[in-house]
């Protein structure tokens, strides 16, 4: 650890990384009272703590210490007042020194391994598209929700992934984010909700900039799994924020080889199929994951786990695959909770090694300590308060091979996440008192008549835009004293109505516009992409002059179209599409 092996215990410097590793660096305080520096002398006080105990234990074996050395005058005299010899204390001090070296050596090895694990972790920017969303306000207890985007990449960028995923002819292609799940943990950490989006969902993708190459990708309407190749995971996160209106704290990605490493480190996960299944190429239907299992429950790990997570044809569709992934994750979480990982150093080391080598994460959680702290927060959620779902969807009218969000049902789920409302109904009434209180209200700096507002039509997207919608709402604002409100000619499709402002001095004025139209203050955000206060009338306000007030969702109120599975359901079992049974 950079210290000389010849040292004095009383001048030992505190370990500079002791607190970071969770150790008590007071153990290495320079002013030690163990009395080890006293060579002989009166020992009646016995020192303090472990030092006295060690000396006492050693003294009990007195005859052995003096074997072959002859009797000293003190020994011959006998009696209660005799003093131990200097040699005995030299031995005790030597033992204490060796123990200290062993302890500090272990500490040094621990720190080096900690640095090794940190070196494994790959990171990138949290977001590379500006959505203007802010982290939600804390509740009355000072707690905030936690939202993590989990992304499974089909990258074939290295030989190991090509071997596991096949399709070596696509090795140079941009990666696709074929698995995307939003993991929401409530502010009080008592429940968690997961929403998957099918990989072939068509959405609006914002402008994104690749933080490595600097390449800028213009905003477009496309398939959500393509976002990973448009600047990295930060673009996928920005797309989710744009779609849901949910602020997302972090992202994590994992590729094929990472899944295999993690599955092996966990030691296996139980999965169930109702019939024998073999996901293989069939006439006219190429591909297949290779998964082959007999009916019932099977423990899978390694490549078999990857096959389960990739199986699509045998589970009917991409939607069926999402359900199978949810079953796997629920089973994995139950498995981890049942293991004494933190008391088994071998298991813990294996998991830490696999996790840090397998994951790429957003930069603000790019250390072992931060990932460990994050894991501890997730660990607190009981399995009967964990709900896995798939975003409600309908067939894409532009392409039957794609899907689009089922607007009414999907919006209900996004609202529940934004309002931190549990997907399950297993909580207690006390939770309702600890929901986010919303942003603080600010005073406007100008009167309505002196406040400029640009109104844009955002009612397009899945449906054709409502003609003249921006002009109509600008006129409503004019009737409320905002005579400078003007309709902009630009179309800006987005799901939820929102107001943005470019600088802090305009926050109060932007909030005043929201209050005039009875738009929630949570819809008012700062954005560097606007030059003044800008109101986008979203697809949630296609008609009428009054903003539609929505009923507050209740816990457990998710729609049936979400295909929910509870984390405590040990009997969940996958249906198998008939052509893939054997």
What's the helix and strand layout?
Layout (H helix, E strand, L loop, with lengths): L48 H11 L2 H4 L7 H5 L8 H35 L1 E3 L21 E8 L5 H7 L11 E9 L6 E5 L5 E4 L2 E2 L6 E2 L2 E4 L9 H12 L5 E5 L1 H11 L2 E5 L3 E2 L13 E2 L2 E5 L1 H9 L7 H21 L6 H14 E4 L5 H12 L6 E5 L2 E4 L2 E7 L1 H12 L35 E5 L10 H11 L6 E6 L6 E4 L5 H11 L6 E3 L7 E5 L26 E2 L16
Helix pairs in contact: 1-4, 4-10, 7-8, 7-10
Describe this structure in words.
This protein has 582 residues and is of the alpha/beta class. It is 30% helix and 17% strand. β18, α13 and β19 form a beta-alpha-beta unit. α4 runs parallel beside α10.
Tags for this entry?
five-stranded mixed sheet, 30% helix, eight-stranded mixed sheet, 582 residues, alpha/beta
Summed up, the helix count is 14
Structural class: alpha/beta
Which strand order spans the largest sheet, edge to edge or round the barrel?
1-14-9-2-3-4-15-23
How many strands appear in the DSSP assignment? 23
Evaluate the radius of gyration: 31 Å
Low-confidence stretches: 1-82
The percent range for strand residues is 15-25%
The main sheet comes to: 8 strands, mixed
Termini separation comes to 60 Å
Average pLDDT metric = 81
- The 3D shape can be described as globular
User: Helix content range of the residues, please?
Assistant: 25-40%
